[in-house]
Amino acid sequence: MNLDLALRSLGPMLLEAVRGTIPLTLISFALGLLIALLIALMRISGNSILAAIARVYVSIIRGTPLLVQLFVIFYGLPSLGIKLDPWPSAVIAFSLNVGGYAAEIIRAAILSVPRGQWEAGHTIGMSRGQTLLRIILPQAARVSVPPLSNTFISLVKDTSLASLILVTELFRAAQQVAAFSQEFMLLYLEAALIYWVICLGLSTVQSMLEKRLDRYVAH
Amino acid sequence: MSPTDPTAGSTDSAGSDGEAPVLSVRGLKKSFGTNTVLRGIDLDVPRGSVVALIGPSGSGKTTILRSLNGLEIPDAGTVAVAGDDGGSAGSTRPPLAVDFAAKVGTKAIAALRDRSAMVFQHYNLFPHMTVLQNVTEGPIQVHKRPRAQVVAEAEKLLDRVGLLEKKDAYPFELSGGQQQRVGIVRALALKPQLLLFDEPTSALDPELVGDVLEVIKELADEGWTMVMVTHELAFARQTADEVIFMDGGVVVERGPAQEVLRAPKEERTQQFVRRLLHEF
Ligand SMILES: Nc1ncnc2c1ncn2[C@@H]1O[C@H](COP(=O)(O)OP(=O)(O)OP(=O)(O)O)[C@@H](O)[C@H]1O
Ligand SMILES: [Mg+2]
């Protein structure tokens, strides 16, 4: 194998991981969580129209391939006159996707908080919104750390799909060097290794976080 | 209106004739679907008095307390709460009347909740907050009172129930009896006109019951107005001014604690009291 090429390509690939993969993941995940919270609240709002909209949304997101979602936004929307650059297209697609999956996680986490916690909030005079923000969501957050971490780790890997709509990120960098040097095996393994290391690191952070949060969960 | 029991040991001068009761309930009705749980409950609680609700499981005791605290919306009936001179609350509260036959808005529910504080059977402390945060959350977040003042008051209350050194502990680090005492302090910190206890000791190991009952007894002696659901008949006899025996959503018998618990008139009350005294 061409060790020299492996070392020379490592720099550019890490650079694209830092400039592309990681910010794409972080921004999409943050926006996705906001969407998820909104969708989860719509589902438990008790308003049947809002709940139905939320259910349909989740069903579409979970029932269609992420790659198709990406292509609809980047290649499909221009035919409706909406032309987006690769980066915003990717962020929108990934956020909507995370929103659909994380909504179910957040909904389940909110519902897992005992009803007595809502009542205790109310009995000290808190409104529904206050109780949700100060009493329920902090407890729900703890319950949802493990499944949300899984969503996050999946997203890191899924961002490689953005290469297919011309976003420059880790995998696209690997593709470009590979095409140029014809060393496909070497460069794709190298890309795989970088993804793996990132995800290993995240798993470690996840289990540390879980251990710390575990203590205060309501029983 | 039932008189307060002069032998019950209340040290305050409250409940005197002429003064409107702190709480006055008329014709409270509640059904869950086809299950009619409250069939028209009347209740008067004079200032500084303790009313004990007793009765078999499913008779509607919890539903009454929850209705008073706006956790359950009755189908009909009125709840009136006297005004507060501001002595305890810091701010004056005008007389309040809620008629459940009409549609009751969130404002009315909030007003109702502001008058009473609930102590739950299973404590329902906030597990993600320390003991001190549990106690100060309401006064700071809801009453918007200055933190320093609220914390000082909370620490004093915690000291009273012997838990000041636990103020930075989390609920999971406390015994059931300690958690329930925090639950009581959380209620007191709100400075309600009315304390509501729903079987405050029935989730506790027997050896932890005493401490909690002692705290409640002290509060009664201090002149707090309270309604408590309890299966501790001996405690009710010592502490309560009036005992109300309920069955099937109606009040079967009511009167001074000594009378209802020692010499009940109604057959159903006699059976219930005899059975409970046997059990314990
Ligand atoms: N949220 C609810 N939905 C449906 N039914 C309810 C609800 N809350 C209470 N009930 C019913 O109302 C009846 C009275 O319940 P409640 O809890 O007031 O009784 P209780 O006197 O407190 O009994 P216990 O001594 O067992 O605590 C029961 O038949 C109960 O099943
Ligand atoms: Mg009950």
Topology:
The complex is a heterodimer of chains A (about 220) and B (about 280).
Chain A: H1 3-43, H2 48-63, H3 66-76, H4 86-112, H5 115-123, H6 128-158, H7 170-181, H8 184-214
Helix pairs in contact in A: 1-2, 1-4, 1-7, 1-8, 2-4, 3-4, 4-6, 5-6, 6-8, 7-8
Chain B: E1 23-32, E2 35-45, E3 50-54, H1 61-68, E4 76-81, E5 96-99, H2 106-115, E6 116-119, H3 131-142, H4 147-160, H5 176-189, E7 194-198, H6 206-222, E8 226-229, H7 233-239, E9 242-247, E10 250-256, H8 257-262, H9 267-279
Parallel strand pairs in B: 3-8, 3-9, 6-7, 7-8
Antiparallel strand pairs in B: 1-2, 1-4, 4-5, 9-10
Adenosine-5'-triphosphate binds near residues 32, 35, 59 and 60 of chain B.
Question: Would you write up a description of this structure?
Answer:
The complex is a heterodimer of chains A (219) and B (280). With 219 residues, chain A is mainly alpha-helical. Chain A has one domain (3-214): MetI-like fold (Orthogonal Bundle), CATH 1.10.3720. Chain A has eight helices and no strands. Chain A has helices spanning 3-43, 48-63, 66-76, 86-112, 115-123, 128-158, 170-181, 184-214. In chain A, helix 1 (3-43) packs antiparallel against helix 2 (48-63). The mean pLDDT of chain A is 93. Chain B is an alpha/beta fold. Chain B is built from nine helices and ten strands. Chain B has helices at residues 61-68, 106-115, 131-142, 147-160, 176-189, 206-222, 233-239, 257-262, 267-279; strands at 23-32, 35-45, 50-54, 76-81, 96-99, 116-119, 194-198, 226-229, 242-247, 250-256. In chain B, the strands form two sheets. Chain B has a six-stranded mixed beta sheet with strand order 6-7-8-3-9-10, sandwiched between helices. Chain B has a four-stranded antiparallel beta sheet with strand order 2-1-4-5, with helices on one face. At the A-B interface, helix 5 and helix 6 of A face helix 2 and helix 3 of B. Adenosine-5'-triphosphate (ATP) binds next to strand 2 and helix 1 of chain B. Adenosine-5'-triphosphate (ATP) binds at residues 32, 35, 37, 55, 57-63 of chain B.
